[in-house]
Design a protein that fits this description.
heterodimer, A: mainly alpha, two-stranded antiparallel sheet, B: Cytochrome Bc1 Complex, Chain D, domain 2, 54% helix, 3% strand
Chain lengths: 149, 140
């Protein structure tokens, strides 16, 4: 064995990759997939404070409301320069999914509630923190892969 | 693959040390810009001590009640890794000593002041406050 942290990390990554490949091949149906975020500005700006949610998780009307309300984004200012905001708005709305366009929270969409029907105490766990923290349980959520467990 | 990763890490580390040692011309330009805006009879230069007070707060009247100070998310030690108060997302250190790329992109700097002065103070920051803040964190 070695104590070189680089080597250990690489071994870990390799093992995880092999595991993920094997699991993916065997139980592909247990992953829900959405297209990953392909736009660099969206990845950067949205991803600074939270996982950059994939455009397919909300309908276009919801994204429009969110981009209209960046001055008060779930209680805080997340304002952006107009040109960057316009580019992100275009990407999100053009690649949007379906759902209730009156709701801006992914976690209030009906499909989401159906898939997350469990004890509310889960959300207050330190490692979860908030319903919006997809990656606490869906480790590959940032790539658009939501393992269904 | 491993060799490439190690090589990239070595190069990145070397560049970071060089920047920290030499200071950054872009950061100096950003500070000069705020100094020019702050020009008033009473402006005699930026103060790291005022910047520290601004950073540590606590302030009243901010848009986000949970964050009465910059330190609320960035922690009281600006060389430490911060944490978004709600999402838990890591925030890279504010102190230039720990994060040499801080305050080197003017658009990024303005974007953050634009937002977080409102979130923490409930108003826009003055040019003098911005310069004080950067001066404090450049010395940390």
């Amino acid at each position: 064995m070695t104590s070189d942290p680089n080597f250990r990390a690489l071994t870990g990554i390799a093992a995880f990759a092999m595991l993920a490949l094997a699991a993916g091949a065997a139980v592909a149906s247990e992953f829900e997939r959405v297209l990953p975020v392909a736009d660099a500005a969206t990845r950067k700006e949205c991803g600074e404070c939270h996982m950059a949610f994939q455009p397919g998780l909300l309908p276009a009307a919801s994204w429009t409301r969110i981009m209209d309300g960046l001055q008060d984004h779930f209680g805080e200012s997340a304002s952006l320069p107009a040109d960057i905001a316009a580019a992100i708005r275009g990407y999100l709305t053009q690649n949007a999914g379906s759902g209730d366009g009156r709701l801006i929270r992914i976690t209030e969409q009906r499909w989401w509630l159906r898939k997350h029907d469990f004890a509310p105490s889960i959300w207050s766990r330190r490692e979860v923190g908030a319903k919006s923290n997809c990656e606490a349980c869906h480790r590959t959520a940032a790539q658009g892969l939501y393992e269904d467990d | 693959m491993k060799t490439i990763l190690l090589l990239a890490a070595t190069v990145a580390f070397g560049a970071g040390v060089a920047l920290a040692a030499s200071g950054d011309p872009e950061r100096a330009r950003i500070l000069d810009g705020y100094a020019a805006q702050a020009k008033a009879p009473d402006f005699t230069g930026f103060s790291a001590e005022r910047g520290r007070a601004l950073y540590l707060g606590p302030h009243a009247g901010g848009k986000v009640a949970d964050t009465p100070a910059c330190a609320s998310c960035h922690t009281r030690d600006p060389a430490g890794t911060g944490r978004h108060y709600k999402t838990g997302r890591d925030i890279l250190p504010m102190a230039v000593s720990a994060n040499p790329k801080r305050f080197t992109d003017p658009a990024e700097v303005e974007k953050r002041f634009e937002r977080d002065c409102v979130n923490v103070l409930g108003r826009a920051c003055t040019a003098r406050e911005k310069g004080d803040f950067i001066t404090f964190l450049s010395n940390r």
